[in-house]
TrEMBL record:
This is Type III pantothenate kinase. Catalyzes the phosphorylation of pantothenate (Pan), the first step in CoA biosynthesis. The active site is at D100 (proton acceptor). It catalyses: (R)-pantothenate + ATP = (R)-4'-phosphopantothenate + ADP + H(+). Pfam families: Pan_kinase. It comes from Aequoribacter fuscus. The gene is coaX. One of its GO terms (biological process) is coenzyme A biosynthetic process. A monovalent cation. Ammonium or potassium. Its cofactor is NH4(+); K(+). GO terms for cellular component: cytoplasm.
Length: 239
């Protein structure tokens, strides 16, 4: 285990989640918003920044510039490997798999060494299946709830609303309800359909991402919710 102090950053398409790690212990953690990267820790006492990013290059460049000006330490960018610590990638081009998916799988599978299903409900909703022996069996990438709504609004003329309706598995009686309830059904229904079609009921399910808790609750509170799963996987990969 590294005895040095590392700033671990998981840069998704919506926001950056970070943890300050020293000798395997979390010293501090938080979320940094892309606008001005406010929220990053104010400490000069780190040895290295470790970055796992799936964001657009512009956003990565912006973050790296801020990191370079603030910390003056090496920045290590992680890339998805074909195999690490017994976890095996199914992609013919492993580096094309999002590093967040890989680290989330590592964070879920490595401590359990069991058949796991990883659901990351962030900007995109991803589901990945790992066999007990560490083989990635496959996954899916689905637009997340916010992205689905954006697509609907930007490609139609009359799907418009201002009322802040919560996502629910119900039938709607207004544009706002029809959209939000429809998207809720699409998100939850997709996961249920994959679970049933691929006989994944008996696997160990691990949920993460901004909507991970909501998703687990809607599915009947089965499985675990681990908000820091990607960062946990990053820590495991660095150990
Ligand atoms: N409490 C919440 N309930 C449902 N969705 C949420 C909640 N908080 C954030 N989100 C959604 O989660 C997404 C951000 O999650 P995150 O896992 O950080 O995404 P990313 O890894 O893509 O940056 C946003 O699209 C946001 O709409
Ligand atoms: C699927 C993702 C967009 C998820 O990103 P997120 O929702 O966490 O921001 C990301 O893992 C990604 O860009 N992946 C590259 C394509 C792939 O994994 O095959
Ligand atoms: K995701």
């Amino acid at each position: 285990m590294s005895t040095q102090t590392e700033l671990h950053i998981d840069l998704g398409n919506s926001r950056a989640k970070w943890r300050l790690m020293s000798s395997g212990e979390t010293q501090a953690q938080g979320i940094a918003e892309p606008s001005f990267w406010e929220g990053l820790p104010n400490t000069p006492l780190i040895d290295r920044v470790v970055l796992a990013s799936v964001a657009q290059q512009e956003l990565v460049d912006g973050l790296v510039a801020v990191l370079e000006s603030r910390y003056v330490v090496p920045i290590v960018q992680l890339h998805t490997p074909a195999e690490h610590l017994g976890l095996k990638n199914s992609y013919a081009q492993p580096e094309r798999m999002g590093i967040d998916r890989w680290l989330a799988m590592l964070g879920a599978w490595y401590p359990r060494q069991a058949h796991v299903v990883v659901v990351d409900a962030g900007s995109a909703l991803t589901l990945d299946v790992v066999a007990a022996n560490g083989q990635h069996l496959g996954g899916v990438i689905i637009p997340g709830a916010a992205l689905s709504e954006k697509a609907l609004l930007s490609s139609t003329g009359k799907v418009r609303f201002d009322d802040p309706v919560a996502h629910a598995l119900a039938l709607g009686q207004s544009t706002a309800e029809c959209v939000r309830f429809g998207i809720a059904h699409a998100q939850i229904g997709a996961i249920e359909s994959i679970r049933d079609r691929h006989n994944l009921q008996q696997a160990q399910w691990v949920f993460t991402g901004g909507a991970g808790q909501w998703m687990r609750d809607q599915l009947g509170e089965f499985g675990d919710y681990e908000p820091d799963l990607v960062l946990k996987g990053m820590h495991i990969s660095r150990a």
